[in-house]
N5-carboxyaminoimidazole ribonucleotide synthase
Amino acid sequence: MAHSMDFKIGIIGGGQLGKMMAQEAKKFNFTVNILDPTPGCPASSVVDHQIVGGFYDDDKIRELVKCSDITTFEIEHINTQVLNELVAEGHTILPSPKVLEIIQDKSKQKRMLNKNGIPTARWVMLNDDFVETINDFGFPAMQKACKGGYDGRGVCVVEKPEDLENSSMGESFLEELVPIEKELAVMVSRSTKKEIKCYPVVEMTFDQKANICDNTVAPARVEESIKNRALELAVRCVEALGGVGIFGVEMFLTSDKEVLVNEIAPRPHNSGHYTIEACITSQFEQHLRAITGLPLGSTELIIPAVMVNLLGAEGYQGKPCFEGVEDILRIPGVNLHIYGKKETRPYRKMGHITIVDKDLNRALEKAETVRKTIKVISEG
């Protein structure tokens, strides 16, 4: 069967995920249009056309969708009302705005998971009369905002009822603070033709100060039965959503070896960056294959990998400057990705480094050296 392959892909969001998606789209010679409020955003250097506008600007969203064959997104905080209208008018937006609506509200996401028998940490909605609710629920617990949280925002630990009285989080729920042995993640792709493929189970470590994923280790160092359970749950999540595209399914492995689903990202995800160097098909290429109805690529792990996020150093703000680049690039297996953000600030994601090595322990040692060596500071 012959394919013209002259797809016009629209991406809502021009950050690092949009940039890496556009880089892969160019392998297929797709045309890429993006919508982003920042002129000169990371993706702008590799796309055909940028519409400068916000993610809640109906006119600009319409403009992007109308000049694209298929529209996708790299960010969840978008006006879904206009997306639903555009789908009703016959435009293709994947994953569908209905999926995005469920994911945008973490309480809706939890209800969807529980309704489909997918295990999560115990949780309860908070209403005005929360004193009784929280006393029944027990301490300590996590308070999570229903909407708008990402990269550690919209989440806090509650140790006593007074902590909630001072909260300015808005609509939120309480979640049991489960004893966690590891945080796991699985990237799952599902195509327009309902083909499904999973990437290997990985483990994530977090920067406690910033509450941002800090390290991704592929493959996860857990027994086979836990990997199989995680893969099974990840597939069930994406099937329950009826999602098309790539999804990052984050999970907790509890100290009593239970696997609980934490949350789902309806887009390429930080925990899947390692796939660019370590797997036959990267998560970004797989997403494009899924939404254009092409056969999904192999998700096989070719070589173990550790991905380290490159965050802006504390105490620096302004035009970024990278210390230690030459030192880390002398290390075999080090792959540096600089996102091209015009300004650094503490804990901002400025890039990532993937270290590949046939020996995972050696990759972990190299990752430790990389972390200590490279630093994002500001000029002047």
Observations:
- The chain has a mean pLDDT of 94.
- Residues 224-241 form the longest helix (18 residues).
- The CA atoms of residues 76 and 104 lie 6 Å apart.
- The radius of gyration is 21 Å.
